[in-house]
Write a structure and sequence with these properties.
alpha+beta; 3-stranded mixed beta sheet; 10 helices; 9 strands
Length: about 375
């Protein structure tokens, strides 16, 4: 009981610190930064001070060592205020988690303290121009040369691509391997000779955070940067990290759904039609009741997945369910909130149009919702054989 109380007290203190940070350093600036698609450098520095870049990195390596559940609650709070911010540290933490989970002790000692402090920030480089959900179809090659490898290829839609300096890059080390995943490895690659950003990619929403195309042209990477030190394990390393990523995206979905609900509840009490606030009209009440129920159901699914992750249980089905439901809740709530706002929901003077632009990304990132449905169905059969 004492341990649980200490954990609860730590979580309360951390969440209160996050709330103060969001109220003071984020809320006043969101509209301008988002509409101008400006990278929030000053906010990122504050995030470093809070330790967000080391949220789930173990304390022995300089991180906060938070549970996945506490992390999910942080992400939800951040996403309520500005969803883009959560992407800046989420992609970074998936990279860090790959090292923490699968790296050699030397790699952990070298990289994790710098990841935790935010001294080195980056993300995960998986997607390619002709390869999204089917990660085994990547074409980026790493050819053994001397004491290292030479990497050639292109990665696209990479979060933190411009302002990040180090990435966990998925490559083919044995292109003809069967099955295909046995020929995939994961390297930590820092920006430098042979590694450049070709362009920033413009997006409908998810503004502020940089998404970029990365080019590797005869980029030399030392052997010691092969995560785990053994070739052919990269696909497994990435799949393990995507559970955390999907819980993060689910938490973002909860945040956006909650933000859309909050704005609808507030506006419905301010706007009057036919001589009374619109919150007194049954059509609006039914709408908001569905929004609230949807949001709470998404939150509970996300917390259930995070609890399973913390227990070390297999949770690809639970994470898939949470990601699927929470992100669809964000999409639906953003539209329903816009309907409550009427014409003002379409105006840039209100944040609702931002939720409407941000939410669809969540149904695509960290594995499309169509893929989540397949994962859930397969796990149902696997866990319930006859």
């Amino acid at each position: 009981m004492t341990v649980t109380s200490e954990q609860d007290e730590q979580e309360i203190l951390i969440l209160e610190a996050i709330d103060r940070f969001l109220d003071r350093d984020v809320k006043p600036y969101v509209m301008e930064l988002e509409h101008n698609d400006t990278y929030p450098e000053e906010i990122v520095e504050k995030m470093k001070e809070l330790g967000l870049f080391g949220s789930v990195i173990a304390e022995e390596y300089g991180g906060l060592g938070l549970s996945c559940l506490t992390y999910a609650k942080i992400v939800e709070r951040v996403a309520i205020v500005w969803m883009s911010l959560s992407g800046i540290f989420n992609s970074h933490l998936i990279m860090a988690s790959a090292v923490q989970r699968a790296g050699t002790e030397e790699q952990k000692q070298k990289w994790l303290p710098k990841f935790a402090s935010g001294e080195i920030r980056g993300g995960l480089a998986l997607t390619e121009p002709n390869c999204g959900t089917d990660l085994q179809a990547i074409r980026t090659r790493a050819i053994k040369q001397g004491d290292g490898y030479v990497v050639n290829g292109t990665k696209t839609w990479i979060s933190n691509g411009i302002h990040g300096t180090c990435f966990a890059v998925m490559v083919k080390t044995e292109p003809d391997a069967a099955p295909r995943h046995k020929g995939i490895s994961l390297f930590l690659i820092e920006k430098g000779e042979g590694f450049q950003v070709s362009r920033k990619l413009e997006k409908l929403g998810y503004k502020g955070i940089d998404s970029a195309e990365l080019i590797f042209d005869e980029c030399y990477v030392p052997q010691e940067n092969l995560i785990g030190g053994v070739e052919g394990q990269g696909f497994k390393h990435v799949m393990g990290g995507l559970e955390l990523g999907r819980i993060n995206v689910a938490a973002r979905g909860v945040g956006v759904a909650q933000a859309a609900l909050d704005e609808a509840v507030k506006y419905s009490q301010q706007r009057q039609t036919f001589g009374k606030p619109i919150c007194e009209h049954q059509a609006i009440q039914i709408n908001m009741a569905d929004m609230a129920t949807r949001t709470e159901a998404a939150r509970l699914l996300t917390h259930q997945a995070a609890n399973a992750f913390d227990k070390g249980e297999r949770c690809d089905m639970e994470a898939g369910m949470a990601k699927l439901f929470a992100t669809e809740a964000a999409v639906t709530n953003s539209m329903d909130s816009m309907r409550v706002h009427g014409g003002y929901g379409y105006s840039k003077e209100f944040p609702v149009e931002r939720f409407y632009r941000d939410a669809p990304l969540l149904t695509i990132g960290e594995g499309t919702n169509e893929l989540q449905r397949i994962i859930i169905a397969r796990q149902l059969i696997q866990r319930n054989p006859i």
